[in-house]
Amino acid sequence: MGNLSQASTRLLEAQDFDAWVALRDTVLDSLPNSDVYVREDDEENFFQAHMYPGGEVIGVFVEDALVAYAMLELPGEHEAHNLGQVIGLAPEQQGMVAHLSSCMVLPQWRGRQLQRALLSARLELALACGRPLCMAMVSLLNHRSRHNMLRQGLRVVWTGMIDGLQRHVAMIDLEQGMGFAAEGELLLPSLDYEALRAAALAGYACVGEVRAPDGAVSLRYARHLVHNRGPR
C-alpha cells in the first residue's frame, strides 16, 4: 500500500468507529483552513451510510493502529445528495454514480502515496460494484486532493455552491472515458470561484494544473467534448 511496506488494509466495520473518529480528530486539527474539510453534523450516521451495502470504508493499519482511511459511497439514483443530480447528470445515469467520499491520512504518514493508492483502490471497487461514474466533492482550497485526482484521471466538471460552500465536483468515467478539445485551453487562478464556475458552465473542465515558483496554482481548463454522460 503506497510506500508503506509494513501496512495492511481491510474494510472497516462498526467496531472501528471510535478509531476512525480519533484519526479524523487529529487530521482535522492539523488543517490549515477549516474549509478544506467541513466535518459532518452526524459522524456516526455518515460512517454507517458508508457500510455495506451503501458503500465501503477502506482502512490502512500499521501495527493494528489506523493510520489512513478512504470511503466509497454508492448513493441511490434518486437521492438528493447524489452528485450526479447535483451537477445535472441525466436521471438514467445517476444510478451509475459512486462517490469518492472522505479520505484522510495521519500527518506523520503523509508523503508515502497513501492517498493516491486509496484513490486507485476505490476506483477499482466502484467499477466492481457496477458504478463507473466516480465523483468527488473537493474544496477549492484542497490543493492536495485535487492534485491527486487530476493525476488519477478525474476532471473537475462542475463548480458551485453545495451546502453553502464553494466546491468542485471532479468526475471520471471508467467505462467510456471523457474527451476534451486540444485547442482553446483556459488558464485560471485556482481560487477565482466566479471564473472557475463560469468556465464549467461554458462547457469547460479542469484537466490539469500549473504551479508558479511562488507556489500559486492555476488550473488548466479544456472544452469538454459532449458525450452521453457529460454534465448538463
UniProtKB/TrEMBL annotation:
The keyword Transferase applies. It comes from the Bacteria. The keyword Repeat does not apply. InterPro entries: Acyl_CoA_acyltransferase, GNAT_dom. Residues 7-199 form the N-acetyltransferase domain. Keywords: Transferase. One of its GO terms (molecular function) is acyltransferase activity, transferring groups other than amino-acyl groups. Pfam families: Acetyltransf_1 (PF00583). This is GNAT superfamily N-acetyltransferase. It comes from Acidovorax soli. The lineage of its organism: Bacteria, Pseudomonadati, Pseudomonadota, Betaproteobacteria, Burkholderiales.
